[in-house]
Amino acid sequence: MLRTLLRRLTKLLLWFAALSALLVLALRWIDPPGTALMVERKIESWSDGTPIDLQHSWRPWQELPDHLKIAVIAGEDQKFAEHWGFDLAAIRQALAHNAGGGRLRGASTISQQVAKNLFLWSGRSWPRKALEAWFTGLVELLWPKQRILEVYLNSVEWGDGVFGAEAAARHHFGIGAPYLSRQQASQLAAVLPNPRAWSASRPGPHAQRRAAWIRRQSQQLGGSHYLNQLPAPLPLSQWWPQWLPRP
């Protein structure tokens, strides 16, 4: 009986690994219409009895302004171009800080946030963390950095029911994402640690200081030139299995 259970569990894990890998691979080219976090927010609104109108509209990479891309990198993940999904130094620092008590500090990279928001539920349980690590690895393996950042900017939460740069720009500033100024981009990046409590259009003193810091960090990183450091996608012929049909 134990061998049978282990055999079935192994098959289940293999099927999960294969199907999740195919899903992530497909999303390299297919723009996701929504995320698990959007579904979670909708369910929360039903249970709370507070209606919520989800705002979301996709903008491709070429239409997203460079200063917004570099602002979120400066504010959220300055080693984005270098790591493979996990910033080990930041994780060690967060663990040391949290062990001392006080307010918990996270160390999630942009890749981890994409994996969590797109595929998983909120929470700090070990099973969810394990799944987050699995999907983060798949995203880093199967997507170029540009695609990771594109999906992040189009799916991250920027207010109650506000998801993605286009919806955020219209909600907070009444303009489309391509027309965001550097100041507005830095304010959007500044509120990402707590987008449901902080306002990008009416930032408080802490958010204003953080936005100014992000603008300085963006300049130190090299501005839009930093984006040229993102590893270029490998040609399809170099990594696509020969026995699979080409997309």
What does this structure look like?
It is a single chain. By secondary structure, the chain is mainly α. The chain has one domain: Penicillin binding protein transpeptidase fold (Orthogonal Bundle). 56% of the residues lie in helices and 2% in strands. It is built from 11 helices and 2 strands. The protein has helices at 2-26, 36-48, 66-76, 88-99, 110-119, 126-142, 145-155, 165-173, 182-190, 205-221, 236-239; strands at residues 55-56, 162-163. Strands 1-2 form a two-stranded parallel sheet. Helix 1 crosses helix 6 (126-142), helix 3 (66-76) packs across helix 10 (205-221) and helix 9 (182-190) crosses helix 10 (205-221).
Largest sheet composition: 2 strands, parallel
Low-confidence stretches: none
Structural class: mainly alpha
By DSSP, the count of extended strands is: 2
Terminal Cα span: 42 Å
Summarize the structure in short.
The chain is mostly helical. The protein contains eleven helices and two strands; from the N terminus they run ααβαααααβαααα.
What topology does this entry show?
Blueprint: H1 2-26, H2 36-48, E1 55-56, H3 66-76, H4 88-99, H5 110-119, H6 126-142, H7 145-155, E2 162-163, H8 165-173, H9 182-190, H10 205-221, H11 236-239
Parallel strand pairs: 1-2
Helix pairs in contact: 1-6, 3-9, 3-10, 5-6, 5-7, 9-10
